[in-house]
């Protein structure tokens, strides 16, 4: 029954794909929120609830899925030609894997959360970065180390210095978060004045 409900909600989301399409300009936080104003409301709520800055939420999603709500890891290939299984169960905006997503739903009580919904994805990022701060003592404003923990997991974080690839990705997230932060300084007052959507 639970799986049936989950599938029902995914179908509804698919029908509403016009509302979930990828923003035209994913490098600009102001452009993203101008196009998807409800996303701003959701990201702002997460910032208030978990303490994770909006610009870091966006930077993680930018790196993980580039705002593609149906994003999945590319399939491995046999003999470089034949499609094989995917390297992980990552899916959606946040690219959360099934196990961690299940933990998130259990700990937050958000039983109907789906990885293909922006609202749930940013709340997941808020929850994850909050736990990272608790477990690893990493500030939620530290985009570089937060992303390392997000990508590697809390248990593997201590080994990140051996992984040049993930260090490179984390630097990109840090750079993008700084760009988003500066952009928001120019449009956040205007976004906050938009009261026509009350939820």
CATH topology: Lysozyme
Major β-sheet profile: 2 strands, antiparallel
Overall shape: globular
Q: Please state roughly what percent of the residues sit in beta strands, choosing from under 5%, 5-15%, 15-25%, 25-35%, 35-45% or over 45%.
A: under 5%
Count of DSSP strands: 2
Helix content: 55-70%
From the N-terminal CA to the C-terminal CA, the straight-line distance is 29 Å
The residue ranges in which pLDDT falls below 50 over 5 or more consecutive positions are 13-19, 83-87
The CATH architecture assignment turns out to be Orthogonal Bundle
- CATH class identity: Mainly Alpha
The domain tally reads 1
Count of alpha and pi helical runs: 9
From the alpha carbons, calculate the radius of gyration and give it in angstroms. 17 Å
Described by its quaternary structure, the protein is: single chain
Helix-strand pattern = HHHHHEEHHHH
Strand order of the largest sheet: 1-2
Structural class of the helix and strand makeup? Answer: mainly alpha
Residue-averaged pLDDT, rounded? 86
Task: Name some characteristics of this structure.
single chain; 199 residues; mainly alpha; Lysozyme; two-stranded antiparallel sheet; 2 strands
């Amino acid at each position: 029954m639970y799986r049936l409900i989950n599938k029902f909600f995914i179908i509804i989301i698919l029908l509403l794909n016009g509302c979930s399409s990828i923003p035209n300009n994913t490098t600009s936080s102001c452009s993203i929120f101008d196009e998807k104003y409800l996303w701003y409301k959701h990201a702002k709520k997460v910032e208030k609830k978990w303490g994770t800055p909006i610009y870091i939420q966006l930077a993680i999603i930018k790196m993980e899925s580039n705002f593609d709500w149906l994003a999945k890891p590319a399939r491995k290939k046999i003999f470089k030609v034949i499609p094989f299984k995917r390297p992980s169960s990552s899916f959606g905006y946040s690219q959360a894997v099934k196990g961690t997503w299940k933990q998130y739903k259990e700990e937050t009580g958000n039983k109907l959360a789906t990885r293909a919904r922006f609202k749930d994805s940013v709340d997941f990022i808020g929850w994850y970065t909050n736990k990272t701060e608790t477990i690893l003592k990493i500030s939620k404003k530290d985009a570089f180390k937060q992303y390392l923990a997000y990508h590697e997991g809390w248990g593997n974080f201590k080994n990140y210095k051996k992984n040049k690839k993930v260090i490179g990705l984390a630097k990109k997230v840090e750079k993008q978060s700084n760009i988003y932060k500066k952009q928001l300084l120019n449009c956040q007052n205007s976004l906050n004045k938009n009261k026509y959507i009350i939820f």
